[in-house]
Design a protein that fits this description.
This protein is α/β, with parallel strands linked by helices and about 525 residues long. It has 3 domains: about 35-200, Rossmann fold (3-Layer(aba) Sandwich), CATH 3.40.50; about 200-415, Rossmann fold (3-Layer(aba) Sandwich), CATH 3.40.50.12780; about 420-525, ANL, C-terminal domain (GMP Synthetase, Chain A, domain 3), CATH 3.30.300.30. The chain has 16 helices and 24 strands. About 30% of the residues lie in helices and about 20% in strands. α2 (about 40-55) packs across α3 and α9 crosses α10 (about 275-280). It starts with 17 loop residues before the first helix and ends with a helix. The chain is globular. About 50% of the residues are buried. Strands 2-1-10-9-11-12-13 form a 7-stranded mixed sheet, sandwiched between helices. Strands 4-3-5-6 form a 4-stranded parallel sheet.
Length: about 525
């Protein structure tokens, strides 16, 4: 690789051979599992034309441009084009309700929106939009029209194909200033309104380069089904571009489509959150019929991993390296790595601190809230200075709110979120720890534990269980397992069996929904004993 990169939206090495540039950058499965192959040359040209068009409309350096769409090559082309033009990209969670989508667009100060046809109606009428696959688009009008630059007009904007066809090729990407903002990534809003995490070009360029680590990853085919509005998928796509690898891109996660995509496109690198892998394990007929010999790496993150899930994955992917990872939107996905002395990483550990990342545990002990500082740290929350000061220490550490345990070798283990911790009697309970224990039961595929009100203890744990395919268990058997493997106060006082867990927009278990499910059932069944 000979190129020197500075703009996060322009990570394609044009010094490569013509043949290299014809290699698939993206295999887009949004129109079917056989996929639409888009070469590095084509993706580069699309992004450059988007950048040229934006520049021609007179947007000022740092103006925010949103992307509201399911995973597809157009999403990435527009995202890259926004950055190349010196503007700030705002990927929006399309699974938010319409009111929250509008909140994100307004809060970010988005000047216009790129969207797909399915999300077009979610764009407020006064915001200009370019639709990926429609002939007509919203017009800029009213207050948005008055606030737009003189280059903007009230006429409907062209659809993306027309925009690309009418814009000259060869836009020279803007060179960002030190610390210049590249993107706002909005958090899921599980504990309130979504917060816009402000990230610079340099922060996530460091992430991609650090993951590259001087190695040749160009032969990899990375299957991405997590949403591109989330850091995990977006950062992986940036890494793949820098590595000149191929991304196989699903529009969204579906267990059977995910399995079939591995086989059809011979994917070598799987990235997911653990609930996605757990859902795969339930498709036993397809799993058993599929050749997974191509898979070399399985990377999971964003939620706790259990030993049961790892054991099941090893049975299907005996040749693959399986890694339990950790990261945050606010401080990036590069946090842990291998032990410097070559000590084998315990399977449930997230690893040893990366040499370029500084970590500490509040209180100075071996268990507590993790604080971290790295080149990927955010520049704060957009329009929330007080909250930014609350989570960023005076010496530059991000307070994660995640509780970790550190062993004698320096390996770290995720215990749970301080937000999720609840008190039952005088005992602090972390749902993730109880769930890991429940998932060691031979019949249990997934568990979700939530606290419900109790007149004596304040709260008590209850559990939802997804059983493994073909397995069976009773409520009492699950309770007996818990009583045998954990303190009595941690056992679930009520157990309900469900076919699947409710998932958030980032494919993590949605605890707010699960808690409401528990309260609804207790309202019918009666209070806990």
């Amino acid at each position: 690789m000979n190129a020197v990169f500075s703009n996060l939206g322009d990570l394609i090495d044009r010094s490569r051979s013509a043949a290299d540039l014809e290699k698939p950058a993206i295999i887009d499965l949004s129109r079917g599992l056989q996929g639409r192959s888009v070469s590095y040359r084509e993706l580069d040209d699309m992004a450059a034309r988007v950048a040229g068009w934006l520049s021609g409309r007179g947007y000022a350096r740092g103006d925010r441009i949103a992307v509201l769409a399911a995973n597809c090559v157009e999403f990435l082309a527009c995202f890259h084009g926004i950055l190349r033009a010196g503007l700030v990209a705002v990927p929006v969670n399309f699974k938010f309700p319409p009111s929250t989508i509008e909140y994100v667009l307004r809060d970010s100060g988005a000047r216009m929106v790129f969207c797909d046809a399915a999300r077009r109606d979610a764009v407020p009428a006064d915001l200009p939009s370019v639709c990926f696959d429609a002939e007509a688009n919203h017009a800029a009008s009213g207050a948005a029209s008055k606030a737009a630059s003189s280059a903007a007009s009230n006429a409907a904007l062209p659809a993306l194909p027309q925009l690309l066809a009418s814009t000259a090729a060869g836009f020279a990407s803007v060179v960002p200033a030190a610390g210049e903002t590249a993107m706002y990534l909005y958090t899921s809003g599980s504990t309130g309104k979504p917060k816009g995490v402000v990230l610079s070009h340099q922060s996530h360029l460091w992430v991609a380069q650090t993951r590259l680590a001087g190695k040749d990853w160009s032969s990899q085919r990375l299957l991405v089904a997590a949403p591109l509005y989330h850091m995990n998928a977006l950062a992986l796509a940036q890494f793949a571009s820098l590595a000149h690898a191929t991304v196989v891109l699903l529009p969204q996660f579906n267990a059977r489509s995910y399995i079939e995509a591995i086989a059809i496109h011979r994917c070598t690198w799987l990235t997911s959150v653990p609930p996605m892998m757990a859902m795969m394990m339930r498709e036993t007929d397809l799993m058993q019929a599929t050749d997974f010999s191509c898979v070399q790496f399985i990377r999971m993150g964003s939620a706790p991993v259990t030993q049961s899930l790892i054991d099941q994955l090893r049975a299907y992917f005996p040749k693959a390296s399986i890694l339990n990872g950790y990261g945050t939107t606010e401080a990036g996905p590069v946090v842990f790595g291998p032990h410097p002395k070559g000590v084998a990483q315990p399977e449930l550990s997230v690893g040893y601190p990366h040499p370029q990342v500084s970590l500490r545990i509040q209180g100075g002990g071996d268990e507590g809230v993790l604080e971290m500082k790295s080149p990927a740290n955010m520049d704060g929350y957009h329009n929330l200075p007080e909250l930014t000061r609350k989570v960023m220490t005076a010496d530059g550490y991000y307070v994660t709110g995640d509780v970790f345990r550190r062993d004698a070798d320096g390996f770290h283990y995720f215990v749970g979120r301080t937000d999720d911790m609840f008190v039952s009697g005088a005992e602090n309970l972390y749902p993730g720890e109880i769930e890991k224990m429940l998932e060691r039961h031979a019949a249990v595929e997934q568990a979700c534990v939530v606290p419900v009100p109790d007149d004596i203890k304040g709260t008590k744990p209850v559990a939802f269980i997804v059983l493994k395919a073909g397995a069976d268990a009773t409520e009492q058997q699950i309770k007996d397992h818990a009583l045998a493997h954990a303190p009595a106060y941690a056992h679930p006082r009520r157990v309900w069996f469900v076919r699947e867990m409710p998932l958030s927009g980032t494919n993590k278990i949605e605890r707010k929904t699960t808690l409401q499910m528990a309260l609804d059932r207790l309202a019918v069944e009666g209070p806990l004993a």
